[in-house]
Fold these 2 entries.
Entry 1:
Amino acid sequence: MERTSDGRLLVVADTNVLISFLLAGRFDLLRQHKNYRLVVTEHARREVTYPAQATELESAISVGDVDEIDLTDPAEISLFAELNTVLGRGESAAIAVAANRNWVIATDELGRARREVYERIGRAGS
Amino acid sequence: MTITDLFEEARARIAVPDNVLKEARERRDLIKKVAEEEFLTSRTFSSGSLAHGTQNDPLNDADAGVVLDRRVYDDLGPDGKGPCAIVEEVRAIIRERLKEEFPNARFYTGGRRAIRINFMEPIESGAGNFTVDLIVAIRREEGGLWIPDLDNDEWDPSHPERHTELIVDRNKATGSRFARILRLAKHVNARHGKTIFSFNVAALGLGAITEKVSLPEGLTLLLQHAADSLNKGFTEDPAGVSGPIKLSVSRRKDAAKRFKALAELAEEALELDAEGQMAQAQRNWSKILTDAIDPPSDEDLKAELAAGLRKGNERVRQGAGGMVVSSQLGRSIPAARAYGDRTVPQKELARRLKSARENTGLTQQEVAEEVGITRTAVVQIEAGQRAVNSLELAEIARLYGRGIASFLSEGAFEEDPLIALFRAAPDYAEDRRLKKELLRCVDLCREAANLERLLGLSPSHAFFVSYAIGAPSTRWEAISQGRYLSEQERNRLDLGTSPVWETAEIIARQGVRVTEYQMPDTISGLFFHSQDVGFAVVVNRGHSRRRRLFSYAHEYCHLLADRDRFGGISHAGNKDELAEVRANAFAAHFLMPEAGVRPFLKALGKGEATRQNLEIYDERNQVSAQKRMPAGSQELRVYDVVGMSHHFGVSYEAALYHLLNLRLLRKDNFEVLWAQKEAAEPVRHALRIPGWDEGIHWYLAEQVLSLAFEAYRRDEISRNKLIELAEKADVDREEIEAVLHDIYPHPEPIEAILPDE
């Protein structure tokens, strides 16, 4: 699994995880986590639509607490396209990044999304 | 041909033509000259790739700077006024000076540092617009310049002039090799995700290329250095004035990984070349310098590999499938390893994107505005000069009415579905609004077809009936065929002789997507079908419900009998075509079957001959009986036709014509009733015949979302995909979330899984 230079695990987050923490007013827990460095895809950022939540996420990105990435690698885009036939854009992008770059994914989805996570990335801890 | 020759050819392929370079320099210098004349400046300077001699084709921009005289502008600086006001002043004056020569030019702040002058005139026909970025700077006591940070109205230290000096000097010291290698490296960076800025490539090049080397060696050195350097940290400013070059941590890591893989490929290419394995070396270089060096031919590669195998070359081994492969054939950049085999090369992707845009009739500017990127970006993407990201691709695919995968998957790039549709009706091909609506429709139909596949349902088109009936050669034949088809179809559907007001419903229940869009008044409807999107009928939402009912039946006939065409538009201009005549006859008979019309009229005491004779024979003689109707009693009146049109759900005019064709109306009677058609509405009102609810329309939402809810229930799609589909069908996210909450009030608990640390 990929880590930053300060040893933190790179974690790509699905939209629902972001929204859950933003809604609870505890996004600070993700911004300054000592073990994980949070990365969001541009898709996920766009799916955070409530103004207050979007502003906080933007702020976290602009000060560098959270990294934003986009998918330009043909392999990643190809996987994204394949996943997007059954999943939303945000979760498709997050899984494509995690699978392709060997990063950790943060997601709280069930059903098809979780099945894709297990199949494409594997089940950590097992 | 040697590897050196291939590199020379690659250099030529990415080079900017001389005439473009000349014009670019002239435009840049014009801006500098104006700035010098209008302001008290200490100097102007050129920077960026044009000044460094490291520009690649297409050249769409140039960089320049003006250093204001601090004796005059003594209030500016980090301890004084910020740059926003003076930059705005410079912008306004330059605009004023250039407005006559370049009346269409636009002047705005580009990025967070410069005034961007977009001449709105490509240097070459077909190229993108050309821009010059002008930085307004002031001198910095400690060396270098203060340049604007317009986002924060602050000044940042930088030394663009020193950057140019460093690159130009290094180029001289390496016998012009440095700039050539940098240009190749910039091309590699652009073709492999453009993970770092061009200036970062240049800065890394300064650390890597210190002496005269060959182009393949130099590029290898640069890739190795980039991988090592980016793995360790950010690239420092070569002038030592500003901070490290900006890059996110994840992007830096990603770039380091890619450069490492590319460097390994390059190292191997050098070794292969040294061993005389030219084709294999070319194969590696073609992977690195995509689009600039072509891959070797299969014949050359196989011959060389076979020769190597015969010689016992350790680099060559026998593959599991008996095929001769190199031990390194599987090596590629890591990101492309898992799925790259299924994707098309960037050049092909660019070609597909351009072709799809042209098919939709959208301009690059319109695409840029819809997608939220600059026109230059669209130009570069279509030229294969800039990687398209997944967000852009998803938006572009939506805009073009295609699936994202259609741009990426290997195999033939299918024709845009609408091209075939508009081929026979070119007058409507320029109607942007119509095209946009139809592209959305095609997209939703494709999603519905995908849901059917996920649910294991037979594709709607698999069993949809088709009649192998030849093309009519006369109008008479067309009308006869239409009538025959309607009778067959009514029997098949067991509709009896009853009215079919719910024709749209009948069509939809057979798996045909049915919907309505606002279209030009001259279009009544259209149909299309393909393996990918299934069958669809689209009817003009702007027409009355009676007319729409007729149009549904009409288009339905096309789907039954015109399966050899992808689709077609029924409009005022093609109503005399035999296929249209047949479809009209079908619609009339399908909606008003003769076996239903006659009893209807009989119930009104109409539709029979005025004199009827009966003859009874008793084995010896005959006995005659005669019935005479009162004169004129069988003649149909306006209120009869109004009643019939209501009963069968068609217009007064359609009912009238149908009665004539069924010979239930004489021509002279028809003409009288036609002349009285204005009376139809008052009669309808007087008879208290209820009006049709014109608000009832058919939407694709129900047809797509009913499949989507079931797919979600079966875990075939995720909740977010369901919401995405709803939004595509114009149903709000909140509404769907509320429905989901009602259906599934108690979500499953989620098991927490943390990564192994």
Entry 2:
Amino acid sequence: MRSTVLSRRSFAIAAVSLVAALGLAACGTQNPPSASSTGAGGTTDTGPTLSSGDVTLRVNWWGGDARVEGTNQAIEAFQAKYPNIHVTGEFSDWNGYWDKLATSVAGGNAPDVVQMDELYLASYAQRDTLYDLSKLSQVDTSQLDPSVVGLGKSNGTLNALPISTTGFGIVVNDDALAQLGLTLPDTDTWTWDDLSAFAKKISDASGGSAVGISPMSNGYSLRLWARQHGEELFTDGKVSISPEALAGYFQLAVDWTKSGAAASASHQAEVASVALDQSDIATGKQVLSFIQATQITAYSAAAGGAKFSLVPIPTDDANKAPYGYLKPGMYWAVSAKSEHPAEAALFVNFMINDLDAGRILGTERGIPSNPKVVDAISGSLSATEKVAVDFDAKVAEHIGDAPEITPNGASALDSTIARYLQEVTFEQLTPADASKAFIAEIQGSIDSAS
Amino acid sequence: MRNSRVRTRISSTTRHVFMILAVVVLLYPVLWMIVSSLRPDGHIFNNPSLVLNTFDVSNYTHGWNALGRPFGVYLLNSAIIVLGAVTGNLITCAMAAYAFARLRFRFQRPAFAAMLLTIMLPIHVVVVPQYVIFAHLHMVNSFWPLILPKFLATDAFFIFLMVQFLRGLPRELDEAARIDGAGHWRIFGQILLPLMMPALATTAIFTFLWTWNDFFSQLIYLTDPNLYTVPVALRSFIDAQGKSSYGSMFAMSVVSIVPLLLLFAFGQKYLIRGIATTGGK
Amino acid sequence: MSLAELQRATRRTPKVAAKANTRDNKAALQFLGPWIIGFFGLTLGPMLASLVLSFTDYNLLQNAKFVGLDNFAHMLTDTRLHQSIKVTFTYVLVGVPSQLLVALFLALVLDRGIRGLTFYRSAFYLPSLLGSSVAIAVLWRLVFGGQGLFNDILGWFGVSAATSWIADPSTALWTIILLHVWTFGSPMIIFLAGLRQIPREYYEAASCDGATIWRQFRHITLPLLTPIIFFNLVLAIIGSFQAFTQAFVVSNGTGGPTDSTLFYTLYLYQQGFGEFRMGYASALAWLLVIIVGALTAVNFWASKYWVHYDD
């Protein structure tokens, strides 16, 4: 008798817990978007309208001191222009940003406006967490080049608007080259072998105090490498680079590490995650480096104002079929669950299209994607910023179609590339094995995400 | 006679020398960090000596404001959370310990076993569901998820500690009070609690220590930089995107461990006694 | 009255027995109230939720999708998981005994009596106090870096080393193990307390019988210390399987280089919060519970062979 009471009660407790547990598992972001809680916003045929009452927006971004300062200033300008909108800014470092964004979205607590990166765009977009910007009339996309706008689309829907674009090249420490008495080969026609030989020459000439270069190690460079071999890294949301081409990418890193053109594997591992001013290129321990064009300003400043210039990466194709593209540095996106999508869109529009904002923000996030803004600030650009702008313009003359954005599930692309590069440079894996394992791993992540 | 005295003195001297050497080696990294925080950035690396030939406090002034808000904000946030956590643990763990140690009730043994099992539960197995719960209660981005669990006696380790301690207090005390007409709350509050001081002190100190250093939970729940706590703020110093300034980072690291050092200085007696008694049967 | 009748008459009826075991039900509810809410709401509930999640595909952004045993099947072929288990087991199997041995050794030295005992005890405890903080992990990363303090000190002894100990796969994990051993102060104090409880008479009697220090240690100290060694061992194993902050900070969140510092909890964190695979992360969390639980159970079972209880 007593035992049945016991078991009935414990069953009840277990059942309640289980139901609670299932409820938790079932609730992801189930709450339907509600009308704005303050003011009289609503939806019309042209999308959500601005409310007349006071609205508070939460905006999230990653970045360092300079970006925080600039963004806060831009926010103040925005608030001055739209007095009924109050903006709270939240910022963090790159690593913490994505952890927190994921958990805050999961908890139904996402900010209204988020800074987005190409690595994660598809992941967030295809999980219905970003607003379709084409439905928000407050954001004007007409001023941007259509191909640039296209880079904010995932499965045809415009989920984020690029803030900035950048090309990819090699930064050269001209002062160091001069000191070593070396001159660059013709960088408009050089091949990968030319670069390898020249980098080794630098290392030898410096007598051990500096190395020529360090291996490419990110999604941008891998995409360019694939395109140089007539392939694409991703096609239709799947990994489409061939193991042979990928093995060549890894082999280059191994060759450079062995020949001394690059530093030892363990040194590469150590400096992989240091701050800019501790990097080898900034401390004079490295003369050439692969960078995104807009980073030249930051690197030059970190190197204490040494003279830097930007040159294109080598290609083995004498015909120079166009392989380059302008990659968005980062985007602004609006959260799908935002209670004030219209105001959020207004903010995005301001940050990308407004000339005052452009003047405040400068090129801290990269060369602005809006050509009018670039024109407006061209007078106040520094020497290195002009170099970047000119470089991008040159790249723009020879671009092919933009590649696909990183598919849903492959957000660990950059860190996976870095890890496999370590495995090959530490000679724990051959480039051939590494490329097969890499493709399998990334494809596996994509498959399990959909 | 004289030989053995000399021998003991030599062996005692060697022992002292060995011990002092051990202390220096052990504490060298910490001492070096403190000394480096008083050196300008350029003089920190390749400078392993502990000799303080500069007393440059610029790292402190610079580091204090380096994260956009005075570091005092982070210290205050950590302090608030620690205060809440200590209060919560003291009250609810003692209450639970009284129930387990002094009361008889249905399901007591399974409940006690369950409580013990939660001590070894890795937090990762409850992190996401807990986050979702707090999000639905609109408590994310506040201190509540970090303080509320302490008011629900989730730190079973301290319940266990106090149960062990209570078992050492004779039941006659309870009986005598009950004969005088005292109810459970009187017995608990007026008789037993004062006698539990060592266990309470240990709980308070360890809660302080563990909460002050807790990185993971604070990272997840605090999204507003105004709410950042010390560990989370410290991590921003090593952000690869910004400029690095090791001097400032060391300075703020020193600042962040000062409360722990103070805690140690004043609570040493209880801390060590607390650790020692947990090892007991 | 027969014996049987007497027994029957004086036997506590189930009702009486039940009443004795439940007489404080109401009071218990009051005192245990917060714990009950906490246990069901914040522990058991979430545990069951995460158990359910481990059979799903949950990316934090959309509803969970039931996938049966897929997550567990994936564990069998997940080489990074195997690597993380290897790393964590190495850390536990090397770090825990090393730390306890150092703790025991220094406790013995201190127990022999030394002037300034309080000072030494405090000094040895200090690293333990600071060991789990972000500040120390950051410091450790710098100390063992290519330009770090450690290499400088090696230079004093004529060893010229410029390698970064934290960026070399063969040494990175050892720096973290060293950090763990560095925090021996806490178990040392427990050992000290245990040593204190051993009556001096035992030693005096033994040395009267001509026993050497080593024999005294083996036959008096060690057996009487086994309960405490056991306690430290159990706690250390449970704790070190959950090590996170140090690995996270020293490897900058990557578990590198080449996953040589990929601790289990770090991998779990990467899968859950890095790649949005909360279903798989929940499965990993439960695997951790099973591993730690099994090891603790083995520990308890084996204890009857070597732990010497006074009573």
